[in-house]
Design goal:
alpha/beta; Glycerol-3-phosphate (1)-acyltransferase; seven-stranded mixed sheet; 42% helix
């Protein structure tokens, strides 16, 4: 109960700062240009993400940080255990990232502004034409140097195991010719999904070796998807 109260306080404080931070971002974008505004967006979103996780009294361990690619043209591929996966990656990867967001989030005031500010893309799964437009938009963002995170399982894993990757989910990475960086998130489901209440957890963020467009396996899409799933699953400990 105490952890839940601490988390609610942290969440409310994070949301309280969101509106002024967003205003500052757009002012910086207007007066100082996109590069300075992007640095502010990274600072603000990292602050928000860390406040969300740390307010649950959880700890995040980074493993394999030496594997983190320095390429700006990168797509992070990760398993999906929890609602808290995105703030974990935003707070501890150490670089700006966007993600593929559900189209419904575009209607949420303030939140949609931040999702756009960090160069994410909204996906409409019910409309194939719109979905292709979103994938193309995401590919353009990656080519412009804005990293994006993809969860190929398509939904959160209820048991914490890594489930089959959906082939279509990697079109964004292939379409942009991005370096693919596999990441395992382990332990985030303990925070809420495991018992449907806020609990502290020790989370591992495991950075695996990157796969580059000139690697042979990059050209074998089916084999690449199988390898990504196997590598990411290897870091799971329940």
């Amino acid at each position: 109960m105490l952890i839940t109260l601490i988390w609610m306080l942290g969440f409310c404080l994070g949301m309280l700062f969101t509106i002024p931070f967003l205003c500052i971002y757009y002012i910086a974008k207007l007066l100082a240009g996109n590069e300075k505004a992007d640095k502010l967006a990274f600072f603000f979103t990292r602050f928000w993400a860390k406040s969300i996780i740390l307010s649950t009294c959880s700890k995040v361990n980074i493993i394999g940080k030496e594997n983190l690619t320095t390429s700006r043209n990168v797509c992070f591929i990760a398993n999906h255990q929890s609602y808290f996966d995105i703030p974990v990656m935003m707070g501890w990867l150490g670089r700006p990232i966007g993600f593929i967001a559900k189209k419904e989030l575009k209607k949420v005031p303030i939140l949609s502004g931040w999702i756009t500010a960090i160069h994410s893309a909204f996906l409409d799964r019910s409309n194939p034409r719109k979905a292709i437009e979103s994938i193309n938009k995401g590919a353009e963002n990656i080519k412009a140097g804005h990293a994006i995170v993809i969860f190929p399982e398509g939904t959160r894993s209820k048991d914490g195991q890594v489930h089959d990757f959906k082939t279509g989910s990697l079109k964004l990475a292939f379409g942009s010719g991005a370096v693919i960086q596999p990441v395992t998130i382990n332990g985030s489901r303990v925070i809420f999904e495991q018992n449907k209440r806020i609990r502290k957890s020790e989370i591992s963020l495991i950075i695996h070796s990157a796969i580059h467009p000139n690697d042979d396996i990059y050209k074998e899409k089916t084999m690449l998807i199988e390898k990504l799933q196997s590598v990411i699953a290897s870091g799971i400990k329940l």
